[in-house]
Amino acid sequence: MKCKIEFQYKSPNSSRPQEKAQDEPIELEAGEFVPIPNVGDSVGYLYGGKKQDFKVVSRHFTYKRNSCCIHIVVTDISREEMLARLKEFHAPA
């Protein structure tokens, strides 16, 4: 089964996530493995041309024939929370 992961940003003031996904597509062929973040996890990826950190608020799985798309909605994560999660975290300049 082919699989695609899409991170969608949702601002704390919005009721819906934006349509734009991460800058780099994440597509897996049958048999490939990638960890899928759960609600509450923090994730970092390229968004808007720079690496940003977010917190997962929801996941939705869409299955069609021989493929699956995982929509992961993320929101802002505070600097303090990231410092508590990662010792090596460096705030953007």
Q: Can you give keywords for this protein?
A:
8% helix, mainly beta, 93 residues, 1 helix, single chain, five-stranded mixed β-sheet, 5 strands
What value does the average pLDDT take? 90
Side-by-side strand order of the widest sheet: 2-1-5-4-3
Distance from N terminus to C terminus (CA atoms, Å) equals 41 Å
Report the count of strand segments: 5
Give a verbal description of the structure.
There is one protein chain. The protein has 93 residues and is mainly beta. The protein has one domain (2-85). 8% of the residues lie in helices and 45% in strands. It has a 5-stranded mixed beta sheet, with no helix packed on it. The chain starts with a strand and ends in an 8-residue tail after the last helix. The model has no long low-confidence stretch (mean pLDDT 90).
Summarize the structure in short:
It contains 1 helix and 5 strands, in the order βββββα. By secondary structure, the protein is mainly β.
